[in-house]
Amino acid sequence: MALRQIRVQGDPVLEKVCKEVTEVTPRIKELIDDMLDTMYEANGVGLAANQVGILKRIVVIDVTGEDPMVLINPRIIESNGEQTGNEGCLSVPGKTGVVTRPNYVKIVYKDIEMQDQELAGTELLARAICHELEHLDGHMYTEKVEGDLMNVADLEPVEE
Ligand code: NI
Questions:
Q1: Catalytic one among 78, 82, 118, 132?
Q2: What digits encode the pLDDT tens for the residues 59-71?
Q3: Cα-to-centroid distance, 22 and ligand 1 (Å)
Q4: Taking the complete model, does pTM exceed 0.90, yes or no?
Q5: Domain 12-154: which topology?
C-alpha cells in the first residue's frame, strides 16, 4: 500500500484540466491502487487524480466503503432532479458546505481494461460523481457552496 500526498486548495494542480487517458500502463495501475489506498486512509468517498498531483482523467469513488469504482475518462451523459446537502472534499480539510447537485446522473467511462462502461447513480453516488468529475476540469465544490463554508467541527454535537 502506498499513500500519496493529498493536495490542498491553493495548490495550482487543483485548478488544471486533466488529460484523457489513452492507455492503462503499469504506472497508471499503480496510481489507481495508490488513489484507492489514499482515499480509504483519509476516510473519503472519492478522489480525483489531480488531488494527488497527477493531471489524468481518473477518479476513484466508494460511497459505501465496499464498492470501489475506478472511472477513467468519465463523462456525464444524463442528469436529472436535484438534491441539496452538505459536501466536503479531502482537498479542503475540516470544511463543509451546502451544494445543490442533480439527484441522478448517468456517465460513460472506461474501466481499467479500457473497455467502455456506463454507470447510473442517485443521491450520494450522483453527488460524488459530480464532485469528482468537476475536479478533473479544475473546479472545486467551494465555487458552488450556498451560504458560508463551515467548519466540520462546528457542526458536531458538543457533549457536556
Ligand atoms: Ni473533492
A1: 132
A2: 999 999 999 999 9
A3: 24
A4: yes
A5: Peptide Deformylase (3.90.45)
